[in-house]
Amino acid sequence: xxxxxxxxxxxxxxxxxxxxxxxxxxxxxxxxxxxxxxxxxxxxxxxxxxxxxxxxxxxxxxxxxxxxxxxxxxxxxxxxxxxxxxxxxxxxxxxxxxxxxxxxxxxxxxxxxxxxxxxxxxxxxxxxxxxxxxxxxxxxxxxxxxxxxxxxxxxxxxxxxxxxxxxxxxxxxxxxxxxxxxxxxxxxxxxxxxxxxxxxxxxxxxxxxxxxxxxxxxxxxxxxxxxxxxxxxxxxxxxxxxxxxxxxxxxxxxxxxxxxxxxxxxxxxxxxxxxxxxxxxxxxxxxxxxxxxxxxxxxxxxxxxxxxxxxxxxxxxxxxxxxxxxxxxxxxxxxxxxxxxxxxxxxxxxxxxxxxxxxxxxxxxxxxxxxxxxxxxxxxxxxxxxxxxxxxxxxxxxxxxxxxxxxxxxxxxxxxxxxxxxxxxxxxxxxxxxxxxxxxxxxxxxxxxxxxxxxxxxxxxxxxxxxxxxxxxxxxxxxxxxxxxxxxxxxxxxxxxxxxxxxxxxxxxxxxxxxxxxxxxxxxxxxxxxxxxxxxxxxxxxxxxx
Length: 546
Hints:
By secondary structure, the chain is an alpha/beta fold.
C-alpha cells in the first residue's frame, strides 16, 4: 500500500476561484461591458486547469459558481439578506461538472484531438450548468451568459437561429480558445480554427438568415408612474398616477396602452368603481388598456398577478394569470422548511397562486394583432415567448416591476431581456415597467425609440413595427441544448467504455497515468496536474535505504 503525502492547495486559490467566477457579471447591465464576456472566463479556466486534483477542481468550480451567482444577483441582497449566500452556495454546485471537464480537457498540454474536443465540450458543459439552474424552482434563467450580448447586433441574429443558448455557446468557445492560445502552443492551430469557426458561423448567420419582414406598425403607449412611497393608500395613489398620465395620451391616437406590473391593487370584479374609471379612460384615449392586477380575486381563492385588458365597455374578459412565480418574492418554496426566510428578508408572506396556461388576447379594432402577455420574471424564459408566437402572438408584452431594486442593476438587466426575446421570436416586445426601465424592441431585437429610465414619470407612444414570418428558433426550438447534451452524452459513453476496457472504475480521473482523454490519439499524453509531484512514504523510505 502506498500512502500519498501531498501539499494542500494554498488558501489564495479559493479566493481566486470566487473572484474569477464573479468577473462575468461585468458583461451584464448595468456595466454592460459586453466585450468583456469573451475574456471573462479565462482567469477561472486557467485556475481550474491547474487544479492539483479533481477534488480541488470540483471545489473551485463550486466556489466560482457561487461567486458568479452572487455577483449577477447581488441586487437581491436587501431582500434576501443572508439567504442570498445560501442560494449562491446551492446554485454554485451546478458548475462542478463543468470544472471537472475544464481540468480534464484543458489540463496539462492539450493538443490535436483533445484541444478540438475541449472547444466543443467545455462550452457544452457550461450550457449544462445554465440549463440546470434555469429551472424555475432554482431561480430561473436570469443571467445566462449569452444574454450579456443583447446590444451587439450579430448576437440577436444568432439568437433568432438558436436562442440565447447558441450565443452563450459561442462566448464560452471563444474563452476556451483564448486559454488554448495562452497555455498550449501545440493547440494553437485548433484554437485559431475554433475562433475562425465562431466568426464564420456568425458571419453566415448575418448574411444569409432572413430578417423579419415588417408587415405594419402599431402605436403602443407605455405608462410609467414611477416610485410611490409605501403606505396604506400607496396602491390607490399609484392607480391615480397611472390614470393621470394615461389621460395625457388623449389625441395621440394610440392603438394600445400598457401599464406595468401591479399597477392595479384591487380586483376589478370587487371594485367596479375602478373598472369604471379604467373604461372611461379607455374611451377618452381611444384605445384599450392592458393593466396588471395584483390582488386577491373576488371569485377565486388566493392572490394572483393578472394581465387584464380593459376597453370602453370595461374588462373585455381577456385575462392572463402569471404562471411562473418568482421564488421567495412571490412564493416560498417548501414553505414549511424555508419559511424562516420571511423573518430575515422580504420574502412573500403568502404564496401567490400561479396561472394554468398562456393566453392570447385579441386587440380590439385590429383583427391582425393578437397580444402575448407575460408578467415580469417570465420574460427571462425563452420557451414562454416562443410558445406564444407559435400560437399566433404578433406582439409580446412584458409587464414588470423592479421598484424594490430601483437603485441596483436589476432594472437594466430585466429590460435587456426583451431584446433577446424579440430577436428569438421575430416579434416586437414591449417591456413596460412600473418604475423603469421601460423599453420597446423591434422584431430583430433593435431598440425602438428611447428607454424610460428609473427617474422617468411619463407616458410615451412608440411606433412598433410588426412582422410576419417565422425564425429558425421558433421553428426548431432549443436545438443547441440538444446538440450540447448529445455531445456530452457521447463523451461520457466513450469515456466509460474506455474505462471498462482498461479495467478501471468508472469516474476515475482522466489525468491518471496511462489514460488519454477523448479525442486524443494514442501518441498524445494525458493531462497532468500542475502541482509539484507527490511524495510517497514508500519512496522516501527507499531513498533513505540507499
